[in-house]
Design goal:
Helix content: 40-55%
Strand content: 5-15%
Number of strands: 9
Largest sheet: 5 strands, mixed
Strand order of the largest sheet: 5-4-3-8-9
Number of helices: 18
Order of helices and strands: HHHEEHHHEEEHEEEHEHHHHHHHHHH
Shape: extended
């Protein structure tokens, strides 16, 4: 029997393979888009993990992929862009030769103990005739000693009784010693140092317990946690006063970061809470909330949700990134955003890290933003109305116009760009009004770095203690950070400031001071006990770095 013959229709076979090829081509396009997206994510995460934490100079961090190199053309162009710096010698760390130093430090303010070292008696006479030498001079040298003493105070309250038979109280007893926590064992010095070590220096409780044990004091971690819980209520009025003053500022830096609160909540609130920072010229307020919504901002600034306006018709300038909550706040009547140029810069850097063909394009944008920062620094350093100010203003306008021109020129060809570059340009165009608004406020920073730097202390605490075990502990952490940061912004030593405040609570019967007694602890107000108005809570003369320049004029 002859085999069956299968007849294949050539037209149907070609149509099948054409459809199959189109399907595979579409899958390839989707796969390449997915690979590009994952490459961008890897570049971003690699920079966050392995890049430099500082964004000063260069591209703001290491290359995302160590094995990734530029092609010959890109490498040549990059070398040409760095030719201006090629001839400069590498600057060493520390104080530079020829610069004006701070001079020898003066430690005469410290408690001083004079120790006399005498020449042995046998060496104070002539070896020939035996005549004794006479004293005529002395040589002086200094040593600094660091000692920690845990002292036990025993308060002996004397009692007296009446020796006569007259009417009245039969016995009298000396008043109890001032104590911030009634019947507590720890003094105001101890509690202030405990708060300072735990929240300002970022030491977990178990490390504080170990350090106390090294000094001979065996104390359980639970006892220290109980002391922290008892002192929380004493700090609340001071925290509320700082928050109230913070909300009255006309310019505020805002930022947020995650914070863990390991307390079981019946309402289903998770462990991931959010730490918010509101930084002004003379205050720094921290608050921990379970949400990352605009409600936190509205509650802080007193926004009328019905009318979407600020209370009392105030105006507010906010410096922040482009997070959606800040975008919603910026839509409220009276709120004007000043968006962060560093976040724009990061978008271009990430695009260049993800696609090596964009490296030269990315470097060009970083250079334009660097020129803007240079012009802004020069503009903020001169006085208004001078010839130097006119020149600096023109330079700033030129740098801003260069960015504006470049974004318009490249937006016309955005369809030909890779998605990462197109996304960076779209972000710049979308937020341009808030970015260009810096032209009217040369005294204010171009970025939100002050708020990010203010969050460093809480972040160190987060790395060491992982978060807070209860809501009251989270609230106490935000309270102490607020008080300590506000004290530093007004050039007051936080440890001395906390000690003085808790001492006032102790002399007030274990309750917070009120009225005028509380006003003298508000760092931005002059001290009524010091007519000169100069604070003496920083006797060492140490001025902490100011993360936010003060406002030169109101909007």
């Amino acid at each position: 029997m002859a085999p069956a013959v299968v007849v294949v229709d050539p037209s149907k076979d070609v149509a099948y393979w054409r459809a199959r090829a189109e399907q595979l081509e579409a899958e390839l396009v989707d796969a390449n888009a997915r690979i590009a997206k994952l490459t961008e994510q890897v570049a971003t995460l690699s920079r966050m993990m392995f890049g430099r934490s500082s964004e000063r100079g260069g591209r703001g961090g290491g290359v995302a992929d160590p094995d990734q190199e530029l092609d010959d053309e890109a490498e040549t162009d990059s070398a040409d862009s760095q030719a201006a710096d090629a001839g400069k010698p590498k600057q060493s760390k520390g104080q530079q030769r020829g610069s004006r130093g701070h001079g020898r430090r003066d430690y005469s303010h410290l408690p001083t103990v004079e120790i006399i070292h005498d020449v042995p008696l046998a060496q104070r006479c002539c070896a020939c005739c035996g005549l004794e030498f006479e004293a005529f001079d002395a040589e002086y040298s200094e040593q600094l000693d660091w000692q920690v003493h845990v002292t036990r105070f025993v308060h002996k309250r004397l009692r007296y009784r009446r020796r006569c038979g007259c009417a009245g109280q039969r016995t009298v007893t000396a008043p109890p010693a001032p104590n911030p926590v009634p019947k507590g064992r720890l003094t105001h010095h101890f509690l202030a140092r405990l708060l300072f070590f735990k929240y300002v220096l970022g030491l977990p409780v178990h490390r504080i317990v170990r350090s106390l044990a090294a000094e001979g004091l065996a104390m359980a971690a639970g006892s220290l946690c109980g002391a922290l819980h008892n002192v929380a209520g004493l700090l609340a009025p001071l925290y509320d006063a700082i928050c109230s003053h913070n909300t009255q500022a006309i310019h505020t830096h805002i930022d947020e970061t995650s914070w863990r609160v390991f307390e079981h909540d019946e309402q289903g609130v998770g462990q991931r809470w959010w730490l918010w920072c509101f930084l002004t010229a003379d205050t720094a307020v921290f608050t921990i909330d379970p949400t990352r919504s605009t409600k936190v901002l509205e509650d802080h600034f007193g926004v009328d949700r019905d009318d979407a306006v600020l209370a009392d018709g105030r105006r507010l300038l906010i410096s922040s990134d482009f997070y959606a909550a800040y975008q919603c706040l910026a839509r409220i009547d009276g709120v004007h955003p000043l968006w962060c140029w560093v976040h724009v810069r990061r978008r271009f850097i990430r695009a260049g890290d993800a696609h090596r063909e964009l490296r030269v394009w990315s470097d060009a944008w970083v250079a334009r933003i660097a020129d803007l920062y240079t012009a802004h620094t020069d503009l903020a350093a001169v006085s208004v109305g001078t010839a130097e100010h006119t020149t600096a203003q023109a330079a700033f306008d030129t740098a801003l116009a260069a960015i504006d021109t470049a974004r318009h020129d490249q937006t016309r060809d955005a369809d030909l760009m890779v998605p990462a570059a197109r996304k960076a340009l779209e972000n710049l165009n979308r937020e341009w009004d808030g970015l260009a608004a810096h032209r009217d406020f040369p005294d204010l920073p171009l970025d939100n770095n002050p708020a990010e730097r203010a969050l460093r202390t809480p972040v160190v605490n987060r790395k060491n203690s992982y978060g807070s075990h209860a809501k009251w502990a989270a609230d106490l952490a935000a309270t102490v950070w607020t008080i300590a940061a506000t004290a530093e912004r007004n050039h007051r030593e936080p440890l001395t400031y906390l000690t003085d405040y808790l001492d006032a609570c102790a002399h007030n019967g274990g309750t917070p001071p009120e009225g005028a007694a509380l006003d003298r602890f508000l760092p931005w107000k002059p001290d009524p006990d010091n007519p000169t108005g100069k604070r003496d809570h920083n006797p060492h003369g140490v001025v902490p770095p100011d993360p936010c320049r003060p406002i030169g004029r109101s909007p």
